[in-house]
Amino acid sequence: MSFIKVLTAVTSNSNSSTYNFNKGEGQFVVAGTWDTATVKLQMSPDGGTTWVDAGSASTFTADGISSFALNACKVRVNVSSVGASTSVNAWVSTSISSDLYT
């Protein structure tokens, strides 16, 4: 299992790049300076038109890690409610490294 860094020192409300997720289990890790920010793992069941949060366990307002299981879909990381000193990073890993790709 290897981690892909999907956010690097994000300081504004934004979304990461969109990744294709084959299916299966993974981990979502977030860390940084929060200052009121919220970071969520999101998935799209329809190829990127609709985005929904991947469960409450994948929503963070402080450093943390969660596990997730998804069917084949697109995933991204959403950052919202940033404060003046927000700077957050995020990583996603999968059981098989080729299961997450752009």
Written overview of the protein:
- The structure is a single chain.
- With 102 residues, the chain is an all-beta fold.
- It is 0% helix and 59% strand.
- It is built from no helices and eleven strands.
- It has strands at residues 2-10, 14-15, 19-21, 24-33, 38-44, 52-53, 59-60, 64-70, 73-80, 87-94, 100-101.
- The strands form two sheets. Strands 2, 3, 5, 6, 7, 9 and 11 form a seven-stranded antiparallel sheet that branches. Strands 1-10-4-8 form a four-stranded antiparallel sheet, with no helix packed on it.
- A hairpin with a 7-residue loop joins β5 and β6 (52-53).
- It is globular and about 35 Å long.
- The two termini are 17 Å apart.
- The mean pLDDT is 94.
How would you describe this structure in keywords?
single chain, 102 residues, 7-stranded antiparallel beta sheet, 4-stranded antiparallel beta sheet, 11 strands, 59% strand
The first-to-last residue Cα distance is 17 Å
Q: Portion of residues in helices?
A: under 10%
**Poorly predicted ranges (pLDDT <50, ≥5 residues)?**
none
How would a crystallographer describe the biggest sheet? 7 strands, antiparallel
Average pLDDT metric: 94
Please report the number of helical segments.
0
Rg over CA atoms, rounded to whole Å, is 13 Å
Q: Quaternary status of these chains?
A: single chain
Number of strands: 11
Order of helices and strands: EEEEEEEEEEE
Find the structural class using helix and strand composition: mainly beta
Q: In what range is the share of β-strand residues?
A: over 45%
Shape: globular
